[in-house]
């Protein structure tokens, strides 16, 4: 037993035989999760052997040579992934061992003494269950772009000042959620509202499976509340749109992007001055670029560089990345098959209601998941649960579709 103590003073209540039966049931459930986790991943000896082989390759004198850069990047990523998995498996073993040891001691003690170990048992079980749930969701993120960073574009809908304020609230929600999930969330661009909030905000989210985790957030987010910007404090409904695209621009090979054919005749390219935080123009020349894909209606904007040609190149790659993602999601063979109604169905559907008045509720329209704790949701605390529900729902729908097509 690695960290389990044999006594605790945090609980003094009598532990009944009925409660002991419930604890045994909890342990059995956790054991099933533990075994399911182990069955879903690389066996421990094989994983340790894999890490040893990769580290041996890293130790070779020519590993860091410039000519070996591509291979070095692959090996380093594989070592990092395998090491994280090894650490995770060892944590599962520790938590399961702690719970098992506590249960054995609990079974041997008199009922009035059993409460001493209950807190530590429950802590071990809770950690195992929590990480098992996350691991289950991560197994669902197996799409070709799920591992990539994600670009979120939040755009105010109809509603003027109210809609701009709503975009600000969503920006904060995603920032808080990313912080809790260990994801990096960086503001790439923002256009301030005339009074409060933002007309639009672009966020770059990086970390493990960032795009796979957040892709389900795309769509319309509807909010209902008593508006503080309405002179009569009337109830008002407003919307914000959230677009999510994989950021696969680390594909620096221009030859790769050139193979993705998007005819220039299908593009509408406009230039403008780059806007900084607060809405001010930070460049006196038209360096920012917006590209619209006419067949689908998709639009991207880039203003991160001072050079118009560089921004155009980046914007075109971002547009192609979005089109590639839709090809994957909609299961079409080529980009040229993407139609505007596909984009509307995939990117523009209303996905979630946020009601602050006359009652409090956040409800996901796709899964039925809901909570009355609106403030905790807006603080980013419950978004993980909501996204997890969507990913499981999506996987089940895909499973049903696969069975129907067999």
TrEMBL record:
**InterPro entries noted in UniProt:** PCRF, Pep_chain_release_fac_I, Pep_chain_release_fac_I_sf, PrfB
Q: Does the keyword Protein biosynthesis apply?
A: yes
User: Recorded GO terms, molecular function?
Assistant: translation release factor activity, codon specific
Question: Which domain of life does the protein's organism represent?
Answer: Eukaryota
> What is one term from the GO cellular component aspect held by the record?
cytoplasm
Q: Which Pfam families does the UniProt entry name for this protein?
A: PCRF, RF-1
Q: Using the record's annotation, list all stretches that form the Prokaryotic-type class I peptide chain release factors domain.
A: 273-289
Family assignment from sequence similarity = Belongs to the prokaryotic/mitochondrial release factor family.
In Swiss-Prot or TrEMBL terms, this protein is called Prokaryotic-type class I peptide chain release factors domain-containing protein
